[in-house]
Structure formats: structure tokens, C-alpha cells
Design a protein that fits this description.
- There is one protein chain.
- Helices cover about 40% and strands about 15% of the residues.
- The protein is an alpha/beta fold and about 280 residues long.
- It has a single domain, classed as P-loop containing nucleotide triphosphate hydrolases (Rossmann fold, 3-Layer(aba) Sandwich), CATH 3.40.50.
- The strands form two sheets. It has an eight-stranded mixed beta sheet, sandwiched between helices. The protein has a two-stranded antiparallel ribbon with strand order 8-9.
- A hairpin with a 5-residue loop joins strand 3 and strand 4.
């Protein structure tokens, strides 16, 4: 969903759990507000609510309430970071939980909410970042439909690669279903990005499974880069701080060993930002 001269939406999605999708969502938005000096809204569409929990927000109104009310009943909460607000997640955010099939336009609930609240959103935010659940439900399709960029975080395993290969077919389905009821044209207009995550190195050498995986994805036109398997990256959600904040808090002599990692991650996120221009 392209909004001329207004906010843009980056959505992190893959139909497979355990890929560090939420970890990248969190680190990306923290990096974006810091390096670009912007204000962002996070929408937690993952039933695990990990993003809501890491921001430490307890809200009575959730993403499920927004969908149950066709966008009429919602709340946006501040986080501990004044540059980031959030619509909190809900374990009941499923097709059945929000009765999405009973909506007048099941695939356009979030698109309609965007349209109804365009002025407010464009005045308050430069960026909206969405974390999805790892499924192909109608509620998840709604999150895809409003995206300018969908970033798929993959890991070096067969199911993850299969999920990436199946993504274009899913997006085509969303395009078909998410049509403007007046013009009959699809509202979906997005770009794809691919992050290879959890790549295992032994010294300067890549492990055999990771090497084989990279041979499949590195030449993909959507490939943004790789992120090595490093405990500090995994710990960001546990600490509630981005990898950049964690390293910045270290003594100077310890920071040096993470500089290549930080540069690589920030380089990937910079490519996502460039795709928004």
C-alpha cells in the first residue's frame, strides 16, 4: 500500500516459526527511529505477543479489538521509547477469534482502518512496522495487504526456504482477495526483501548447511544480506534493548568485536529503508 508523501509500512513475515522474525522487527524499528530521527508505530500481529511484551506495554485494547469492530474500536499506546508507539498484540488474533469472515470486506479491515485514520497516522508517524504471525490466515493477509515492503526472515533449513518459495503465491492470493470494492482493483502494492538469518560460522568459514542455504538465496533479486548466529542478537528480546543499544552499553574494549556484526545488520536495515524511497 503506497501512501504518497506519507507514512510507509514495513511488515516482517514468514510462514514458519523460529526464524527471528520478531527479533528483526524489534531491531529494525529501533534502528529506524534512531538513525532516521523519525516516529514509528508498531502493530503486533503475532499471537505470541512477543513484541508487545518486549516493549513492556499492557493495553486493554488490542489488535483483535480493532478487527472485531471493523476498525472503530482501537487504542495506540506509548512505549518506553518516546519515538515508538504500539498497537498491542492478542493471543485471540485469529480468523475465528475476531470473526473475520463476518466482516463486510474480510481482507480490507486494516486497509479500511488506514483509510479512516489516514490524517492522524500521517501527522504522527513516518513509519509503521508490523510483526505478523507465521500463518496464511485472513487476519495475516490484512497485514500483508497494507504493506509497502514485506521482509521475510529465513534460516538455513528446508522448511524456511520452502516458506520463502511459497511467499509469492500467498501474496498473489492476497492481491486477488484485497480489492477495492468500488474500482475492483487490488490495494496490494509491495516489494519483497529476504534476510538470511542464523548463518553459522566456524571462524571465517560458513557451516555446510548454511553454505548450501546461501547458495540458494544469495543470487535472489530480493536478497538483502545475512545475519550470523550470534547470542547477542538472540538476546535482544530478552534484554528489551536493540543490538545497537546492547553494544553501546559495553566497555569500549568489548565493543570492537561486534563492529562487523553491527555494520552488517545496519546495512541490511539501510537497504530496507532505501526500498521505501
Amino acid at each position: 500500500m503506497s501512501v504518497e508523501n506519507g507514512f510507509k509500512t514495513v511488515t516482517f513475515y514468514i510462514d514458519k516459526g523460529g526464524s527471528a522474525k520478531t527479533t528483526n522487527t524489534f531491531n529494525y524499528v529501533k534502528d529506524a527511529v534512531s538513525t532516521r530521527n523519525i516516529k514509528a508505530l508498531v502493530i503486533d500481529g503475532d499471537r505470541s505477543r512477543n513484541l508487545t511484551n518486549v516493549f513492556g506495554v499492557n493495553g486493554d485494547k488490542t489488535i483483535a479489538d480493532l478487527f472485531k469492530s471493523d476498525g472503530e474500536d482501537f487504542a495506540i499506546y506509548p512505549t518506553s521509547d518516546p519515538r515508538i508507539d504500539i498497537i498491542v498484540g492478542d493471543s485471540d488474533f485469529t480468523d475465528e477469534g475476531v470473526n473475520i469472515r463476518g466482516a463486510s470486506s474480510p481482507y480490507l479491515v486494516l486497509f479500511t482502518w488506514y483509510s479512516m485514520n489516514y490524517q492522524m497516522l500521517s501527522e504522527k508517524y513516518d513509519l509503521i512496522v508490523i510483526d505478523t504471525h507465521n500463518d496464511t490466515s485472513i487476519v495475516t493477509s490484512n497485514l500483508i495487504a497494507v504493506s509497502d515492503i514485506v521482509v521475510s526472515v529465513t534460516t538455513p533449513d528446508g522448511p524456511s526456504f520452502t516458506a520463502w518459495r511459497n511467499l509469492p503465491e500467498f501474496i498473489e492470493k492476497v492481491k486477488t482477495k484485497a480489492r477495492n470494492p468500488f474500482t475492483k482493483e487490488t490495494v496490494v502494492d509491495l516489494k519483497l526483501g529476504l534476510i538470511a538469518n542464523n548463518i553459522i560460522f566456524y571462524g571465517n568459514n560458513v557451516s555446510a548447511p548454511s553454505k548450501e542455504f546461501l547458495s540458494l538465496v544469495e543470487n535472489d533479486e530480493h536478497f538483502l544480506g545475512l545475519i550470523p548466529n550470534r547470542p547477542i542478537f538472540v538476546s535482544t528480546l530478552l534484554e528489551g534493548k536493540s543490538i545497537f543499544e546492547l553494544v553501546d552499553e559495553m566497555p569500549i574494549h568489548k565493543q570492537q568485536k561486534y563492529q562487523n556484526l553491527l555494520a552488517g545488520v545496519r546495512g541490511i536495515y539501510a537497504k530496507i529503508n532505501a526500498m521505501l524511497e
